[in-house]
Every structure is written in structure tokens, then in C-alpha cells.
Design goal:
This protein is α/β, with parallel strands linked by helices. The protein is built from ten helices and 13 strands. The strands form four sheets. Strands 3-2-1-4-5-6-11 form a seven-stranded parallel sheet, with helices on both faces. The structure holds UDP-4-deoxy-4-formamido-beta-L-arabinopyranose.
């Protein structure tokens, strides 16, 4: 099968590319390298340096190359920034996806795996969060993901495009076989921030609040290893080939880890002191978020295999160590 991976040079995209290549698919990466990295490209995959906003140019040229399906991961993803610069998220995430949907219609591609997010749910009403949980995004980023799921629903109905929207929880870790080590620039997520302190790129980290209603007072999240996410994309594409119907599904580890558990494990594995200061809460942070992945098990035969805390930290540290 011939697969186009849009956003395939990014942090999650490169892991997805690696897994499709490992499974014997022919892969083409389409990326504008705005946050993706050349060092994340693999020689076995073709590369098109293009932008999803270039509708009549490279996007049309790329999608015209007879793909059996496409994976769409090209999006901005900083929830905080999306509240200050919604225009940027409207253009790239929403208009960019509409371009992809229209071009897929024009070129006859009818299988799309879309990278959605647990950010579509907003403040949890119950835990663990399953796919029936109401969607009420708390930030504009999450809103763009939820709206795109709706566009996908309409294109399914009107144009026969089948899709799987994968609602990722907190993506973390690096390729378990150590083949990817491109680092995200100016990260804001917990694990890369912890690693930047361990690697001496930052002097200390901030823990955003220790007065939550959780066992150690810090927030609990569901961290899902990128290698597990990558396997989920291959399973989703296989589902589209086998079933010819669309699906919206969570990908999470079903385990809750606190900020302090992550920090203490990182100190143990890296052997670095990782100075941390407790500061006030970050606005918009729910105390606890965990996924139900039951539906992914039932529909995709998928479950997390690499998302234990030691593997999340040790694979990330391996990637950072190469840059010291
Ligand atoms: C995790 C925990 C912080 C940094 C975000 C997006 C979400 C999704 C996943 C894409 C929280 C704490 C963090 C730091 C800290 N993205 N923390 N100090 O906010 O759960 O989810 O990424 O789809 O949409 O919002 O992830 O990694 O920012 O935070 O104490 O320097 O770590 O308060 O409890 P979050 P995160």
C-alpha cells in the first residue's frame, strides 16, 4: 500500500512514518518543516517539501500521485498559544484540513487517519474518559480538532471519505529502538521540559501547582508512548481497508501519572538532580485526566505496550543525551 503522511517530519509524525515503513508500506512524507525536522526524515520514504495551504500547487501535485490512504498530522498544537493567536490555528488547522479534504475528494483518496486530541473533551465530567464523554474544548486548539472531526463526518456522508480520528492523550517518549532523536524546539510539555533541565538546556523547571485533589497534590495525566501511538495509526489504516467505515477513538495508556512521579523517575533514570520549583497552578489544567482505551481494543485490537513510566523516560533521555 502507498501511504501519504502529511506532517511526517514532526515529533509524532516521524514515529508514525517509522512504523509504516517497518510494516512494509511505501511511504511519502509531505511537510513544510515549520516544526518538523529534516533529521526526522528516513531515506526509505520519499519527501515532498510542501505546505497544505498551497492548494493548487504542491498539495495537488502530491495527492495526485495515487495514494491508497493518507495520514494527517500537520497542525499547530500549543493549547496556550491557540488562545492568544487563534488566527494561526484557524488557518493551518482548519483551512489546511479543508484543503486536504477537498484535494482528497478531487484525487480519489478515500481513507484518512486524522490526529485528533483528548483536548476535544475539555474539563472531565467523569473518569476514565471514553468516547461518549461530551466534547467541550477549553482551548481554541481543542476546538479546531473537534471541528475537524465534524468536517470529516460530513465528508464521510457526502463524499464517501472514510476516516479514523485518533484522540491522543499526552504523547511522550521516543522510538523504543532509538532511531528517532529530533528534539522539539521551545517545548512546553512536561517531559521535554524535564529533559531540558536534565540535559542542562534549562536551569530548573516549574511544577504548576501541588494543591490539587490528587494523592501528591500535582496533576495526573495519561501519558501514551509515541511508539504506541504510531502502531495505532497502522491499525487505523488497516481498519479502514478492512471495514470501510469511520471511527473516532481514544488512544491512551489508561494509567494516571502525577507530575512528581514523572519528575522523581526522571531524576532516578538520568542520575541528574533536575531542580524544580513549585509555583502556582497553570490556568485551564484539570486535576486529573485518564483515558478509557476499551473502544480502541475492541475496534483496532490496539493497546499500549510501551507506556510504562520507565520506558517513557528512558527513551526520551536517550534522545536528549545524543544532543548533549
Ligand atoms: C502535563 C502536566 C502541567 C509543564 C497538552 C495539551 C493537550 C495535548 C497534550 C495535544 C500538567 C504539568 C507541565 C511544566 C508542569 N496536546 N507541567 N510544568 O496540558 O496535559 O496537555 O498536551 O493534543 O491538548 O494541552 O500537557 O505536558 O503541558 O502538562 O508542572 O513545565 O505537567 O501542569 O499537569 P497537558 P503538558
Amino acid at each position: 500500500m502507498n501511504i501519504l503522511i502529511i506532517g511526517g517530519a514532526g515529533y509524532i509524525g516521524s514515529h508514525v512514518v517509522r512504523d509504516f515503513l517497518d510494516q512494509g508500506y511505501a511511504v511519502t512524507v509531505f511537510d513544510n518543516l515549520s516544526s518538523g525536522l529534516r533529521e526526522n526524515l528516513f531515506p526509505e520514504a520519499s519527501f515532498i517539501y510542501g505546505d497544505i495551504m498551497d492548494y493548487t500547487g504542491l498539495l495537488r501535485a502530491a495527492l495526485s500521485k495515487r495514494f491508497d490512504g493518507l495520514i494527517h498530522l500537520a497542525a499547530f498544537k500549543a493549547a496556550g498559544e491557540s488562545m492568544i493567536k487563534p488566527e494561526k490555528y484557524s488557518v493551518n488547522n482548519i483551512s489546511g484540513t479543508i484543503n486536504i479534504l477537498n484535494m482528497a475528494t478531487e484525487t480519489g483518496i478515500n481513507k484518512i487517519v486524522f490526529s485528533s486530541s483528548a483536548a476535544v473533551y475539555g474539563e472531565p465530567k467523569y473518569l476514565p474518559i471514553d468516547e461518549q464523554h461530551p466534547t467541550k474544548p477549553e482551548n481554541y486548539y481543542g476546538f479546531t480538532k473537534r471541528e475537524i472531526e465534524r468536517f470529516l463526518g460530513w465528508y464521510d456522508k457526502l463524499k464517501g471519505i472514510r476516516f479514523v480520528a485518533l484522540r491522543y492523550f499526552n504523547a511522550a517518549g521516543y522510538d523504543v529502538r532509538g532511531r528517532i532523536s529530533g528534539l522539539e524546539q521551545n517545548p512546553a510539555n512536561l517531559l521535554p521540559v524535564v529533559m531540558e533541565v536534565a540535559a542542562g538546556i534549562r536551569t530548573e523547571m516549574q511544577v504548576f501547582g501541588n494543591d490539587y485533589d490528587t494523592p501528591d497534590g500535582t496533576c495526573i495525566r495519561d501519558y501514551i508512548h509515541v511508539s504506541d501511538l504510531a502502531i495505532g495509526h497502522v491499525a487505523a489504516m488497516n481498519y479502514l481497508v478492512a471495514k470501510d467505515k469511520s471511527l473516532i477513538v481514544n488512544l491512551g495508556s489508561e494509567k494516571g501519572l502525577s507530575v512528581l512521579e514523572v519528575l522523581e523517575t526522571a531524576r532516578r533514570i538520568t542520575g541528574k538532580p533536575i531542580p524544580a520549583k513549585i509555583v502556582g497552578r497553570r490556568p485551564g489544567d484539570p486535576a486529573k485526566l485518564t483515558a478509557s482505551a476499551k473502544y480502541a481494543r475492541e475496534t483496532l485490537g490496539w493497546g499500549a505496550q510501551h507506556s510504562d513510566l520507565d520506558t517513557l523516560i528512558s527513551t526520551t533521555w536517550e534522545a536528549y543525551r545524543r544532543h548533549i
